Q: What sequence folds into this?
């Protein structure tokens, strides 16, 4: 007992009515809060402030620049790229996750697939961009092999370094990401539900249509949104595909940041960043709504 | 599950694995193929692209920097995030939800956006603090927050930290002992998981390093790619394999930790 009192009184002077104790407990959380204030909130505030800053004080000029055709088309391209790659990734990823989840929980296949999906989803667009250049680039393995058999892989011109190629590469990391984020939802499905359906005379189709489908749908849509946000914010892959120019918003941001023209460009980058935050914020709100619906049934 | 359904499921799984296995493994195989190509069309395969990596001091420096960053960020997570999470659960219940929201914020504010705000901060840091690449660890710690928070929260949920900490404190332990000698060993697989996520994220990070003009592993691979495709792909393959082996080993570790706990209870 004495030891506990001694240790406690190191932090707290004997409180008058207990109020002092609560306020000093916040000191324990202070290091983390100060750190995130400096390196998470401060940058965000700087982005918001920068978006409205101009050479002569606060201005809407940067936001007005967002309406320029080349930036609007960058946003469109980003949205299309994210929509297509996340749609394909969500469906294919869900199928793969289902195949893995219905196998033995300690099996080798599950371990390998889980580890592989972990690597490919986190790992970094540069490696993946190079992998695709090595596969279907102009000197790539498949292109060369097909050439040796007289088939031209690119009859209408090389598309790897365009939005189409980028979409394909995005699908490559969207599928594993879907497996990683959707697997917990699939693991939460109880075999009792299937048994109950069968006891009541239901078929596989009616099981999916009336039981598993509706239960998994919010989780599925939520994971799809996550994939969308992930694709929308991705930068490394596009940056590593050298000839791609400024076709999507992250590339426009990097162009604005590395431009030597000066302050205006940095503020344009901030405006673009603010635009991205707006899009991703909408998605995150939708995602948390969907997650709350899933949490009712699946842990 | 009846036999017919089991068979259909097995066929379905097999088809999925084969088709997607090809889709995912062909590019990796192509990378290995490309990296081992000989000089001329008919030349034998060679590992020279791999061995030349260790001969290039800039590359080795970039690799070392990334590994050091991974280490610093892992230590940072254990020294800053984990104690705060434990503290919140034990003393400041009101902090638990806001803490979770803070840790999930980097998902809403992605790296490409954060880096715009980091630029002036890092300019200041480089002038007044240090211009070593290791200052990237400040930014990276923020990036790993969502992943590490989820891993550590899952681990903390399985440990009765209130009982353990009260017992330890009543025996005279300080907070350091409570966190690192009592609670952490009880959630070792979650801690290891979090550290491995830190390693994967830090080794794979490109955006912030590139736009703040630092040369980490991924930036080195990209720069190398502009003048030596083979070497860059060799390095990419090596780093991919490295992280895969790590993560694969992790799947064994979580099972080991839970078995140990079970054995001790019995």
A:
């Amino acid at each position: 007992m004495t030891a506990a009192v001694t240790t406690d009184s190191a932090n707290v002077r004997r409180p008058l009515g207990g109020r002092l104790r609560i306020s000093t407990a916040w000191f324990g959380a202070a290091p983390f809060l100060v750190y995130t204030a400096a390196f998470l909130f401060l940058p965000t505030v700087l982005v918001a402030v920068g978006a409205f800053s101009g050479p002569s004080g606060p201005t809407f000029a940067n936001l007005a620049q967002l309406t320029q055709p080349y930036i609007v088309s960058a946003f469109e391209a980003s949205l299309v790229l994210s929509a297509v790659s996340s749609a394909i990734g969500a469906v294919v990823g869900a199928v793969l996750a289902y195949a893995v989840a219905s196998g033995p929980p300690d099996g080798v296949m599950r371990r390998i697939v889980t580890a592989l999906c972990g690597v490919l989803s986190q790992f970094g667009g540069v490696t993946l961009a190079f992998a695709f250049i090595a596969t279907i680039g102009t000197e790539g393995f498949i292109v060369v092999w097909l050439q040796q058999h007289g088939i031209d892989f690119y009859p209408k011109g090389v598309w790897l370094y365009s939005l189409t190629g980028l979409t394909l590469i995005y699908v490559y990391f969207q599928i594993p990401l879907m497996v990683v984020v959707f697997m917990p939802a699939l693991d939460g499905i109880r075999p009792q539900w299937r048994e109950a359906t069968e006891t009541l005379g239901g078929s596989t189709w009616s099981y999916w249509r009336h039981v598993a489908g509706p239960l998994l749908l919010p989780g599925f849509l939520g994971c799809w949104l996550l994939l969308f946000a992930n694709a929308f914010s991705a930068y490394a892959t596009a940056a590593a595909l050298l000839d791609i120019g400024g076709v999507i918003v992250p590339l426009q941001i990097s162009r604005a940041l590395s431009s030597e023209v000066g302050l205006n460009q940095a503020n344009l980058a901030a405006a673009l960043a603010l635009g991205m935050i707006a899009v991703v914020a909408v998605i995150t709100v939708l995602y948390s709504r969907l997650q709350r619906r899933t949490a009712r049934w699946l842990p | 599950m009846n036999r017919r359904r089991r068979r259909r499921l097995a066929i379905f799984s097999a088809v999925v694995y084969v088709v997607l296995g090809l889709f995912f493994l062909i590019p990796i195989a192509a990378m290995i193929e490309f990296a081992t190509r000989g000089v001329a069309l008919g030349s034998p395969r060679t590992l020279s692209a791999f061995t030349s990596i260790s001969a290039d001091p800039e590359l080795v420096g970039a690799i070392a920097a990334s590994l050091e960053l991974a280490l610093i960020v892992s230590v940072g997570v254990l020294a800053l995030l984990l104690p705060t999470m434990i503290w919140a659960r034990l003393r400041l219940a009101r902090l638990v939800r806001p803490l979770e929201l803070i840790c999930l914020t980097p998902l809403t504010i992605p790296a490409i956006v954060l880096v715009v705000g980091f630029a002036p901060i890092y300019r200041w840091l480089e002038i007044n603090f240090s211009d070593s690449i290791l200052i990237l660890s400040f930014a990276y710690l923020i990036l790993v927050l969502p992943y590490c928070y989820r891993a550590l929260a899952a681990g903390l949920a399985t440990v009765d930290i209130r009982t353990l900490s009260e017992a330890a404190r009543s025996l005279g332990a300080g907070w350091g002992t409570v966190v690192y000698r009592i609670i952490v060993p009880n959630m070792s697989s979650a801690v290891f998981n979090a550290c491995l996520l830190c390693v994967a994220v830090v080794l794979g990070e490109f955006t912030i390093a590139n736009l703040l003009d630092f040369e980490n592993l991924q930036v080195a691979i990209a720069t190398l790619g502009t003048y030596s495709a083979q070497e860059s792909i060799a390095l990419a393959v090596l780093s991919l394999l490295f992280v895969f082996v790590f993560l694969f080993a992790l799947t064994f570790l979580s099972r080991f930790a839970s078995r140990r706990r079970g054995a001790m209870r019995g």
About this structure: Chain B touches chain A through 86 residues (CB under 8 Å). The CA atoms of residues 23 and 234 of chain B lie 20 Å apart.
